[in-house]
Amino acid sequence: MTLIELGLYFALLSLLTFGGLSSVIPEMQRYIVDVKGWTTAADFMHLFAVAQAAPGPNVLFTSLIGYRIAGVAGSLVALLGLCVPAAVLTWVVGSLWERCGDSPWRGVIRRALAPLVVGLTFAAAYIIATPHSPDWRLWLIALATAAGTLRTRVSPLWLLAGGAVLGGLLL
Amino acid sequence: MTIVGQTESTMPAATPPHTLGELFLGFLSIGARSFGGVLPAAHHVMVEQRRWLTPEDFTETVGLCQVLPGPNIGNAAIVLGKRWHGLRGAIVAFLGLFALPYLWVLALALLYTRAAERPLVSAAVAGVGASGAGLFMATAVKLGRPIVRKPAAAALMAGCFVAVAIGRVPLFVVMPIAVIVGLYCSWRRML
């Protein structure tokens, strides 16, 4: 039962993942932690961290959530649920889009979506760095990483490693 | 065939993968190389190394995939696999892309579950999580900087953030409203 629920939920969510997984992370957390109680907010954050430390598209985070809830079957159901509907849409729209060339609608759609993706990506950052009540130490690590990304050319992997060290020292 | 070095600069034409096996291995290698970002790995493998795509093609395809919902690079695998080998190509490219990272992430999760009891491990992992949140912030800043001066864009950004992060309103409610408002504003040239 849980598997079906998980699959259907991620399949619906799949169609909202404009701009990538980050847009739907707050919604995933709301449903999985607040509504269903399948795991805790802290565990959700930890699984996110594990996914960050792995190579590959960050949608693999969904397979970790699925794994936590329903084992290996859950991991596959969650990953495919999140990917397949969007993939089908891409299949259908892809050729249409390539055909309509320089239609002004392309620009209209792109400009319409940009502010939503920005707002939702900030929301994802806020939700992950605030698993309980706001904690200045987590915020400090997040802001330091953001500054490091924007101001330097250091690889994100080093920044994540820095986050691990700061976490070990501060938390 | 013997003068590859000379023809490189004069012959920019791309040669798509001939077989499904080649397609699979290419995407497998993208997945394997994608530590710290999939798009750079995809560019390296498909444009520089295997020359399946010209740089312009690559940019165009990624642009399309960023407008559609779904993981960008997953969508790119679908679009390119389809273009080269139809439905089978799309499936093969998609599986190739996810195979290795999937195994890797599950292995990491198993390791983590065993070590999670130790407070130091738990603290370090929380630090990585917060750091990952920081990477998202940086992405949002980069994407937002060019548009934040426009009042409609700033209002939409703030509205989405407050509704979803603070208000905890379901995305299934927020997204349709935001898309409609966004399309209206964009169509009226306010964005």
| Distance linking N and C termini of chain B | 51 Å
Note the beta-strand portion of chain B: under 5%
Helix and strand content put the structural class of chain B at mainly alpha
Percent of residues of chain A in beta strands?
under 5%
Instruction: Specify Rg of chain B, calculated over alpha carbons.
Output: 21 Å
Gross morphology of chain A is globular
Write down the domain tally of chain A.
2
SSE series of chain B:
HHHHHHHH
* Gross morphology of chain B: globular
Q: What is the oligomeric state here?
A: heterodimer
Work out the helix count of chain B.
Answer: 8
What is the topology?
The complex is a heterodimer of chains A (171) and B (191).
Chain A: H1 2-14, H2 25-35, H3 41-52, H4 60-99, H5 104-129, H6 136-151, H7 156-170
Helix pairs in contact in A: 1-4, 3-4, 6-7
Chain B: H1 4-10, H2 20-33, H3 38-49, H4 55-67, H5 72-115, H6 119-144, H7 151-166, H8 171-187
Helix pairs in contact in B: 2-3, 2-5, 4-5, 7-8
Polypeptide structure, described:
The complex is a heterodimer of chains A (171) and B (191). The N and C termini of chain A lie far apart (38 Å). Chain A is mostly helical and 171 residues long. Chain A folds into two domains: 2-132, no CATH class; 135-171. In chain A, helix 1 runs parallel beside helix 4 (60-99). Chain A is built from seven helices and no strands. With 191 residues, chain B is an all-alpha fold. Chain B has a domain at 1-115. Helices cover 78% and strands 0% of the residues of chain B. Chain B has eight helices and no strands. The chains are: A mainly alpha (171), B mainly alpha (191). The interface between A and B is large, with 104 and 86 residues.
Question: What's the short story on this structure?
Answer:
The complex is a heterodimer of chains A (171) and B (191). By secondary structure, chain A is mainly alpha-helical.
Features:
heterodimer, A: 171 residues, mainly alpha, 2 domains, 7 helices, 78% helix, B: 191 residues, 8 helices
